[in-house]
Automatic annotation (TrEMBL):
Annotated Pfam families: MMR_HSR1, YchF-GTPase_C
PANTHER family given in the database record: OBG GTPASE FAMILY, OBG-TYPE G DOMAIN-CONTAINING PROTEIN
Lineage, top ranks: Bacteria, Bacteria division WOR-3
Necessary cofactors: Mg(2+)
Keywords per UniProt: ATP-binding, Magnesium, Metal-binding, Nucleotide-binding
A single cellular component GO annotation: cytoplasm
Domain named OBG-type G: residues: 1-333
Protein name as annotated: Redox-regulated ATPase YchF
Entry superkingdom: Bacteria
UniProt source species: candidate division WOR-3 bacterium
Molecular functions per Gene Ontology: ATP binding; ATP hydrolysis activity; GTP binding; metal ion binding
Length: 333
């Protein structure tokens, strides 16, 4: 699973990327600082996992992770190659969700491509580029098929119609394979100094500058500052949780020796494939999965106590992992 950060130049995409991934990619007050995309991994701050760690006190705890992609700024005309153009759009064709970052902070020194700060207009600018770029893909494909006609062409024509009308088509596996951007799930985030009214577009309010200034403060202090400025109290970590909530993903946990670990996978994944995510040997030699709920483990203080209380059940390779499962995979080597 991959999340992509998109938006106009100079909105703070790389700054956000660095916050999420604890990275050090280049940030600067001029547009198109980012040219090559940045790829990094964000730790997911999952409240349930924190409670699990608190309850069983393992020597090592490893949170779940998700890949983040930060791309170059997009401008009006990007789909026709304006700015740094289409190649940048190509950089987000394979992400599962878009974090659409908008800017509502004003600054004399950090230029805005349309001079005035207006996040709703900026949102529309970028959305139309997505639609146009998708339309171009569909039209190219239709041209290829023009001699063939048939079912696919008819379907493509319907999709093109939707795109021309400004409506993203439903995300079918076929469209996923074309790499269309507009149907992807998205989370709108606004980077501003302070919000006295709820942000437009139902966006997630954050202040990247404040987050940078608060680095090193304890989380509860950060939360109270965020509240004071009308920001989401969860800060950057909440962006990841919101994004995950829009995707069909579930958390599961493993406790092995001294390490507790959180994992995130697509909903409906089978136990044998979850085992494969942990280690290929576990998949190869899979025997069974012992499963408990994370809440039971937290209450009872560990896997063995849960076993004694009859709270652990055995499942086979086709068991579909549920959100909040704690798994112990039995396998032969
Ligand atoms: N005042 C203020 N400045 C910010 C904020 N967030 C980022 N900046 C500054 O804005 C400038 C642009 O930030 P970047 O993170 O490089 O922005 P970007 O969207 O990645 O820009 P491109 O890669 O050029 O598209 C930098 O000077 C940041 O320090 C903010 O919340 N408030
Ligand atoms: Mg950048």
């Amino acid at each position: 699973m991959k999340l992509g950060i998109a938006g106009l130049p100079n909105v703070g995409k790389t700054s956000l990327f660095n916050l999420l991934t604890e990275g050090k990619s280049e940030v600067a007050p001029y547009p198109f600082t980012t040219i090559q995309r940045n790829i990094g991994v964000a730790k997911i701050s999952d409240e349930r996992f924190s409670r699990l760690v608190e309850a069983i006190k393992p020597t090592r705890s490893t949170p779940a992770q998700i890949e983040i992609v930060d791309i170059a700024g997009l401008v009006e005309g990007a789909s026709r190659g304006e700015g740094l153009g289409n190649q940048f759009l190509a950089n987000i064709r394979d992400v599962d969700l878009l974090i659409h970052l908008l800017r509502s902070f004003a600054s004399e020194t950090i230029s805005h491509p349309y001079t005035e700060v207006d996040p709703v207009r900026d949102y529309e600018v970028i959305r139309s580029e997505f639609l146009l770029s998708d339309l171009e893909i569909i039209e190219r494909r239709m041209k290829k098929l023009s001699k063939l006609g048939g079912e696919e062409r008819k379907r493509l024509e319907e999709i093109a119609e939707l795109l021309r009308a400004g409506t993203p088509p439903p995300l079918t596996p076929e469209l996923k394979s074309y790499g269309l951007i507009s149907p992807k799930p998205e989370l709108i985030v606004i980077n501003g100094d302070e919000f006295t009214t709820p942000p437009p577009l139902n966006a997630y309010p954050i202040s990247i500058k404040l987050e940078e200034e608060m680095a090193g403060l304890p989380e509860d202090e950060k939360r109270s500052f965020r509240r004071e400025y009308g920001l989401d109290p969860r800060g950057p970590g909440g962006i990841i949780m919101e994004a995950i909530g829009r995707l069909d993903m579930v958390f599961f946990y493993t406790i092995k020796g001294e390490e507790a670990r959180a994992w995130i996978i697509r909903g409906g994944t089978k136990a044998i494939d979850a085992a494969g995510m942990i280690h290929s040997d576990m998949k190869k030699g899979f025997i069974k999965a012992e499963v408990a709920s994370v809440e039971d483990i937290i209450t009872l203080g560990g896997f063995s106590s849960a076993q004694e209380k009859g709270k652990v059940r055995t499942e086979g390779k086709d068991y579909r992992i549920k959100d909040g499962d704690v798994l112990l995979i039995r396998f032969h080597t």
